[in-house]
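Quick log. Single chain, no ligands specified.
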Amino acid sequence: MVNYRVCSVEQVRLSMGKLLVTGASGFLGWNLCRMAQGRWDVYGLARRNQNQLQGVDLRRADLTRFKEIKENLQEIRPDALIHAAAESNPNFCQLYPAASHGINVEATLNLASLCADLRIPFAFISSDLVFNGLKPPYSENDPVCPVCIYGEQKAEAERAVLERYPRALVCRMALMFGDAGQGAASFIQPLINDMKNGRQINLFTDEFRTPVSATNAAQGILLALSKTNGIVHLGGLERICRFDFGKLLRDILGAPNARLNACTRQSIEMAAPRPADVSLSSSRAMALGFKPGSLREELKRLACTRHPAHAQRDR
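-> predicted structure:
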């Protein structure tokens, strides 16, 4: 047992202190660190620390090594921890299940165990891919039934976390998009580049999600961390297929010549199976105060951030 001050969940919710974010150089982790500043003293752990963010104490760590995790917790002494690090590429997980299990399941359980011992709030970032896509929209009470190994690993980690630390928070995230800083990206960055460069873009007409901006996602996670535990869904307001999402982005970017090709999941060979519709119901989070913007609003905000000229055109 680590010699550590005891800080209850209630105490942390009343007085913010040190927040530790794993995967801090990644897409969601970077956005979490950015959004938490001002309310928390933010610390980050990353396998590679190339995605620096001013005001964040970023440290390199291999989360698959329990000793490194424990030593960092002893040194930083966080008041809460958000575990955003993951091997999140479903195709990689399908091809290399043993390698991805180490970070997606084993490291997750180790972190949850340490936080349970220390009695500090712990949030685990899970995925809408724990569902099979046959009975949307999904609430927190619906049974999980993943169709790919990545989804299986997330579902396994959820069970293990809540068994070990019942007061933990599990945030199931919808498809996320947004700014990623340097060194990380969401799916939208290559999509924008392909639109600009005139490359053909294959987008599914038969795969539906409830996309949420990274800014809204980070706000939702921090809100849930401060108010609740258990499972919370954090998705956007609209159910949409990949192709229609691409058309909306094309219109907002002003790229009428973008080469969007409507296709089906079966027409593209991939290692990991893809569920048809994992749209999330986020009513529980909304009752806590979660307020995601519309897709159009959030995509316009992203376009204005990346290309200030859009700001003048959209006024």
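The longest strand covers residues 41-46.
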